[in-house]
Amino acid sequence: MKLATATPSDVPRLARLVNRAYRGDSSRQGWTTEAHLLDGQRIDEEGLREMLAVPGAAILMCLDENDELLGSFYAHATGEKVYLGMLAVEPQGQARGVGKFLIRAAEDYGRQHSCTVSKMTVISVRAELIAYYERQGYRQTGATEPFPTDPRFGIPRQPLTLLVLEKPLTYA
User: Fold this and answer.
1) Where are the domains of the chain?
2) Would you state the pLDDT for residue 96?
């Protein structure tokens, strides 16, 4: 596995990956699907371009030896915190270390930007995903955030809330 930083030319394949990983029948092949919670897409190409344009932000990509996209993760460094979001791993390639590879890379991105804390939000009813992040050293802060109401990010089938998880970034 190798790490690359996304550019605008990567947007079409990133959109395909993220939507396959989160929504629709293809997402059900992996364990991180949200298809049972939300209808619609997870992200569109315009949204990805907007994310890439944010100062201090990057979309990190995990590629195989043939430059095939295995996964991606958004990292946005602001002050002492790096916000991590939209971890996406090809559904048929899950449980092979891609997620852990991207989490480490995103945390390193935060350290490179002088961040001391890594923050993410997870849908509160995603117990298996929360447990996964807790195994990676993240802890629930007790804080919550409302789920976005913009239908570009999906249409909830039930009321949803985001839990805030954080992890201190130590330097090796």
Assistant:
1) 2-168
2) 86
CA–CA separation, 105 and 29 (whole Å): 25
pLDDT band per the 50, 70, 90 thresholds, residue 92 = confident
Which pair of structure tokens corresponds to residue 165?
């998880």
Q: Are strands 117-123 and 81-89 parallel, antiparallel or unpaired?
A: parallel
Task: Quote the DSSP letter at residue 124.
Answer: T
Q: Does 15 score more than 90 pLDDT? A: yes
Return the axis-axis angle of helices 11-22 and 45-53, rounded to nearest 10°: 110
Pick the CATH number of 2-168 from 2.40.110.10, 3.40.50.300, 3.40.630.30, 3.40.50.720: 3.40.630.30
What is the tens place of the pLDDT at every residue in 104-152? 999 999 999 999 999 999 999 999 999 999 999 999 999 999 998 888 7
pLDDT of residue 52: 96
Residue with tokens 């961040």: 115
> What's the rounded Cα separation, in Å, for the pair 53 and 146?
24
DSSP state for residue 153 in the 8-state scheme: G
Cα-Cα-Cα-Cα torsion 144, 166, 32, 76, nearest 10 degrees, comes to 100
